[in-house]
Each structure stands twice: as C-alpha cells, then as structure tokens.
Amino acid sequence: MTYASQQDLIDRFGAQELIQLTDRTNMPPSAIDDTVVTRALTDADALIDGYVGKVYDLPLPNPLPVLTKTAADIARYFLHGKAADKDSPVTAAYNQALSWLKDVSKGLVALDDGGEEPAQAGDGAVRMRGPDRVFTRDTLRGL
Q1: Distance between start and end Cα atoms, the chain
Q2: H/E element holding 130?
Q3: Average pLDDT over residues 26-32
C-alpha cells in the first residue's frame, strides 16, 4: 500500500521538479523516471510504516490525507538526496514530517479517520465490587 503516488508528487511539487530530480540519463532532463519515483515512494512508505506501525495495525484501512502529504514530503527529500541543503524548504518539510511521525508513534497524535468511535461497554457507567465489609453495625454492636 502506498500513501502517495507519482501524481501526488506532480500535483504538489510540479512535473518539472520531478523531471530534474529523476531523469539521470538525458541531458537536459526531459522525462520523469518512474523507477526512481517508485523507489523514493516505497522508501517513504517504509519509513512511515516504521513509526505508525508502533501504534496502529498495518496496513491502515483508510490512509488519511495527512499521510499522503507526509509521504510526498519524505519522498521529495529522498529524491533530492545529498543535494538537499540543511536550510532548504525540502529539508524543513522532511524534518517536520519526521517530527509528526515521532509524535504519532508516541501516541501524542492520533490518526482519526473521522469514523464513529466504538460505544463504551456498560453505557459509560463505572461499576465496582469490593469485598464484604468486616466491620458492620451488627459486628460492632455491644462495643
């Protein structure tokens, strides 16, 4: 299961950027290399699954749009590789995505798909049962 597709990358970052990042055979670059894009997206999915899998069962039934954005930012960073400057927007988006994934893995952020929450058992009422009392009015009578 992939969280983002090649079309998601094109929609977010533009075809020209993908052409420049992936076409390693033509000079000047002229086409998007599907193999390079697929590898970056697969690596991004594996990274996301590593964090999300600590809290949720994988594969997720309905991945959220925030996971698509996260996967796209991570894949873009992977496509830039060593050329990504530490102060660039690409690196900032990658670092933000990792920070968010760490929060998800710690349980600080929940992946809510907007579905209905399951009903609580017992209508939400708290019931408790303890041992029988040792000291009652009858046992203390006459003291």
Answers
A1: 74
A2: none
A3: 88
Question: Looking only at Cα atoms, what is the longest distance across the chain?
Answer: 104
* pLDDT tens sequence across 41-57: 999 999 999 999 999 98
- Give me the torsion for CA of 78, 43, 111, 121, rounded to 10°: -160
Contacts 24+ apart (CB under 8 A), 72-75: 72/4, 72/8, 72/9, 72/12, 72/13, 72/44, 73/97, 74/43, 74/44, 74/47, 74/48, 74/98, 75/4, 75/9, 75/37, 75/40, 75/41, 75/43, 75/44
Which pTM does this prediction carry?
Answer: 0.76
